[in-house]
Amino acid sequence: MSSPAFREFESRFLDAYWHQYPSAAITIGYGRYYEDLVIPDSISFRKNIAFSDKWLDSLRSTTFDSLDDNSKISYLIIENQLLSDKWYADTLKSQEWNPAQYNLSNECYYLLTQPYAPLDSRLRTLSQHLSHSADYYSAALHTIQIPTNEQTELAIKQNQGGLDVFGSSMLDSITHSGLSAAEKDTIGRRVATTVEAIRNYCSGLQKILSAKDAKFRDFRLGKELYNRKFVYDLVTSFTPQEIFDRSMADKTIYHNEMFGLAVTLWPKYCAGLKKPADSLDLINTVIEKISLHHAKPADVMDTLKQQVHELEYFIVTRKLFKYDTNSNLKVRAMPAYMSGFALANAEFIPPYQKQGITYFNIDDVTKYPPAKAESVLREYNNYSLQFLTIHEAMPGHCLQGIYSNNHAPDIVKSVFQNGTMIEGWAVYAETMMLENGWGNHSPEMQLIHDKWKLRELCNVIIDYGLHCLNYSKSDITALLKKEAFQTDAQVEEKYHRAVVSQVQLCSYYSGMLEVMKLREDYKKKKGDQYDLEDFHEKFLSYGSAPVKYIREMMMK
Length: 556
Ligand code: ZN
Ligand code: ZN
Description:
Elements: H1 3-20, H2 22-28, H3 42-60, H4 69-92, H5 94-97, H6 105-113, H7 119-129, H8 133-143, H9 149-162, H10 168-175, H11 181-210, H12 223-234, H13 240-270, H14 279-290, H15 300-317, E1 329-333, E2 344-347, E3 358-362, H16 370-379, H17 384-392, H18 397-407, H19 412-415, H20 419-435, H21 443-468, H22 473-483, H23 488-500, H24 507-526, H25 532-539, H26 547-554
Parallel strand pairs: 1-3
Antiparallel strand pairs: 2-3
The protein binds zinc ion (2 copies).
């Protein structure tokens, strides 16, 4: 198959793919099949497996070697996606043990709020989409065999939280729309049925939880499934054992560096205090003092806005990027439905939509209870807050998202985004900015930077430790508190996240190491011609493809 023929194959494949997975089509903004809702019964999972087999056959009838480089990468991404879908359905079988994977609120929120079409037409689509919601939830309950306790609790919490989507603002939109009375009546009934179906689903799950002879699956994935999931989800050149060993070794390196910095900073922050004998306690004492310097709740938004501007100016004037400062990036208050989880996050334009605004969302800290606000702001103190802006916005997620939309050579690399590349990039950005003089090489910035690295590498240690090495909760608590300087609340949150997710926590540190290694090798290859701006522009021109594929292109 020639490369143009392959591109034709690609668009046929993608259309078939979104038809097969219509809920995913909604979240990436494809614009078709939104009215479809797949009922998650055993037949649907068998159909997904058959879909993978069929398209793997057609894909593999292509002669890989005849393709151009760009198509080769797309080939590998599509192959990984199909193999992964098949493996999820026939081997991992999370549909049988993870009740949290059934939830309609997110896609319905998208239909209601994304301006891809006029409201009336979106409401008609929503009405269609919800016409079998009761079947959806009863099939889900039927498909679940032996769930994990933790994911069952999560499913109840998330589905109950999702009821908001079907609340007053949806009903208002319907009332004020241009739909006919009959249409309004139909969609009104379907929304009511959906709310009831969600409640029934939650009470069904509650029954499972409280049954006297309740049997639950262990949330630990175990080495065999974990290793496989790692391959499909991360698409990295590391094995789990390698990244775990590397994280353990790097932890010691960061501790040593931090000890030196803490000793330097001691007189400035801790004069008159008794020096702890234990080096980790000494580091912690200095970090705690530094953390008292933080923004007031009411100033967080303005501070972050200002930082984004300063960072944009910095990366352009220091020739780190050819970034267009007129890009459509907006710093705004976080929408209510995502509030309460993180202080800030990046929100990308759905890949097919192309046009639109990339958001840097900031939570309203003035609405937090005072104790929580204080604790969050100490964590995101004056130094740490800068890394948050670098990671989430500039030149981390928001910048990368903008490049991915503008420059990705084709849509495959945007719709099947590689999370390891995305998180690895943002984590790389933290270190790269410091190397290039952001923060004027102050020891405070370096110390807090190192704390961020510890958090990222401990993500690997606790994830692998929990799912493959039988780490207990107290092992993890001790590690995060003592060796990564985390608060009780952060430890609790991270432990819970590691329990209900698997592998994803490894993406940050693995991805960063891959970007760093590629930069080092690219520098060697280019010799005198090497230029950091050139490296960044090239690296980001391949869309959100796995770093190991970008590497093949850049190192040719
Ligand atoms: Zn304070
Ligand atoms: Zn991130």
